[in-house]
């Protein structure tokens, strides 16, 4: 899996932790995302944006990353890898 999803990363520990925690808590995390994104048409959102939000919530809840730090990091990811109008959805 590392070779497919994280080939350019030298340190994959954090990515692995996020993925592991997400997989073991997917139902709860997805419920939280849908609850907070209720004013958006969730089914029509970009899958990358949904994934970014799921990773953000996973990191805050299960890896004790400070909220501000995590939000800043994931908003940066959104601006780099998603559509221009996705920033407001993720934020």
Q: How many helices in DSSP terms?
A: 6
Query: Structural class, please?
Result: mainly alpha
Low-confidence stretches: none
**Proportion of strand residues:** under 5%
The oligomeric state is single chain
Average pLDDT, all residues: 82
Notable features of this structure?
91 residues, mainly alpha
Write the layout of secondary structure elements.
Elements: H1 2-5, H2 13-24, H3 26-36, H4 47-62, H5 67-81, H6 86-90
Helix pairs in contact: 2-4, 3-4, 4-5
Short description:
With 91 residues, this protein is mostly helical.
Q: How would you explain this protein's 3D organization?
A:
This protein has six helices and no strands. The chain has helices at residues 2-5, 13-24, 26-36, 47-62, 67-81, 86-90. It is globular. The N and C termini lie far apart (29 Å).
